[in-house]
Amino acid sequence: MISKIIKEELIQAAKEEIDSANDIVIVSHISPDGDAIGSSLAFANFLGTLDKRVKVIVPTAYPDYFGWMPGAKDILVYAEEKEKADEIIKKTELIIALDFNVLKRIGDMAFCVADAPARKVLVDHHIDPGSFADIVISYPEMTSTAEMVFRLICRMGYFTDMTKECAECIFVGLMTDTGSFSFNSNQSEIYSIVSELIKKGVDKDEIHRRVYDNYSESRFRLMGYMLTNKMKIYPEYGAALMCLTKEELDRYNYKPGDAEGFVNMPLSIKGIIFTALFKEDEEKIRMSFRSQGDVPVNEFAAEYFTGGGHKNAAGGQLYVSMDEAVRIFEEKLPTLAECMIAERDRQLSI
Ligand code: MN
Q1: Number of independent structural domains in the chain
Q2: Same domain? 203 vs 258
Q3: From the CA of 348, how far away is ligand 1's center (Å)?
Q4: Domain-terminating residue out of 191, 212, 233
Q5: DSSP readout, 256-287?
Q6: Cβ(154)–Cβ(2) under 8 Å?
Q7: What are phi and psi of 5, to 5 degrees?
Q8: Residues 172 and 27 in one domain
Q9: What predicted TM-score, i.e. pTM, was given to this entire model?
Q10: Backbone angles phi, psi at 292, to 5 degrees
Q11: From the CA of 225, how far away is ligand 1's center (Å)?
Q12: How far, in Å, from the CA of 100 to the mean position of ligand 1?
């Protein structure tokens, strides 16, 4: 039995918006991950079964290893076809925003989406949703936006119409946002959902292989280089920092998604409970933070790195040099000392 977590009035409001629109655009965040692509393609597939005209638009390219997903080839990448995308967004009747909380998460696309006359529905699981949408369906306790899409489709009464392709996309979102059910995955109901997805024909072993055993050789070379040369451990806190400059990323022919999962790796080391990955972009440093237990990396990211996210998974960015970013990190790291040491000692005592 799957409980009715999303409020009935939100389900009805979303259903009314969908019922009264024929042209629908689905948008998701920069550097789209498995949940962004999975929830978007699942929703698009579902709307397709209702005979809606649907376009999925993402701000920047998605990793090659999601290319097999049903509908992936039809995704429009804003950075590559801006004028076409602007035109579609301007004319659409309904925009469904998935897996992001505020418009700055969709980068250059934000202006067009904000100005579009279309009605807007936000479905997301990040804290502090913005106010750009007419209907906001925000449940930070959910594992993934894909889980929310599953619940929405069921609650609107369309579970029996859900296709295998839709189920596959939902599974990708659920799997990737929980690290293959290794974190944020103690909610028993998600396994009831996975069970329903498998009954729809999802081959979960095959999907795991397609997503996680489909990386490029250069990603592996980059990983090896980073772990050997670019990982700094702070044993006094149980923390680790890895940095990759633009020159290093270029040297290893870096492509979107190539650093997926890197930030989690040092958590596999005994006694490490907080990790950070800094990546140099054109003019800024992008940070990812991960933690275990009661170490609030979202607060750390928000306070010092103009970012945010979940308690155990957050990101940020600073327009400074790599050296300066590292300096700030090392200066601010002690602010988490108490909770890091408590969590490290808790783990080491078990
Ligand atoms: Mn997500």
Answers
A1: 2
A2: no
A3: 30
A4: 212
A5: TTTTTTGGGGGGGSTT--EEEEEEE-SSSEEE
A6: yes
A7: -80, -45
A8: yes
A9: 0.92
A10: -120, 150
A11: 29
A12: 8
